[in-house]
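WARN  no MSA supplied for this record, continuing single-sequence
INFO  ligand: adenosine monophosphate
INFO  echoing inputs
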Amino acid sequence: MSLLVVGSVAFDAIETPHGKVDRTLGGAGSYFALAACHFTPVRLVAVVGEDFTEKHKSVFRGRPIDLSGLEHAPGKTFFWSGRYSRNMNERTTLVTELNVFAGFRPALPRAYLDSSTVFLGNIDPTLQRSVLKQIPRKPRVIGLDTMNYWIEGTPAELRRTLKHVHILMINDEETRQLTGEHNLLRAAKRIFRMGPRVLVIKRGEHGALLVSDKFMFSVPAYPLEEVRDPTGAGDSFAGGFMGYLAKAGRVNPQTLRCAMVYGSVLGSFAVERFGVERLATLTRREIESRARLFSKLTFFKL
Ligand code: AMP
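INFO  complex generated
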């Protein structure tokens, strides 16, 4: 089952208490694709500038990641820079330079039009909807990520897009902002009325909570001795989650539970090194081994 993702491919400058990197490959689309490709082939829809060379592309090579939807536009690649606090719970965005991303109008290659699973990464909700409009038959599973910028800035457009979405994946703050409801379960009910039937709330070091109208499921973040760089943890979570669901070919309580575990596993690998460094070397064997540890970590009998 092919999985299409639209999202940013970027250069990031990141500073954490463990060090600093200057212009490393990043972007939500990059993290997502590198995480999801362990489960199913990924089609990446994004834009990069003239400064994005074959060398930068090489991180995707040798993996089932189709780059025919990666557009090269005149100008510079999207650049983002952020600094983390001492305990890494807070992040300050220092610079956001949209560059070629400002004029991005996603155009799907013909070969992508049969995508049955789609993830609309955190971009303008109008563009997210334009991706869906290009796909003749409605994908079986549509996931979406968004952020405060769009929730506050283009609420009506976001609502229109959400009507088409099955699974919304956002953090707790965004859940509250989108619904005006502090209690997450009551907030979930409001979100179900907007379109999505499943809400996945990403809660950083506290793991993630899935709420649907039928059941709830919670996973912890895998305990690590050293977290070097939290950037992209949420996008890697989304990649593991959607990749697993696309491979399973069915959405039911059992596959959603496993998708949550694989999401958390991929997120936990992403934070072990700076940027996409850890995901770039990750193997399926390592993923399965950590998933088994997860099962031990959370198992109990009543
Ligand atoms: P996360 O840590 O999950 O928030 O994702 C961080 C990644 O998102 C970085 O690699 C950034 O390049 C990318 N990013 C930051 N701001 C934006 C934005 N406004 N739109 C799209 N991608 C962004």
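The two ends are 38 Å apart (CA to CA).
INFO  checksum written, moving to next record
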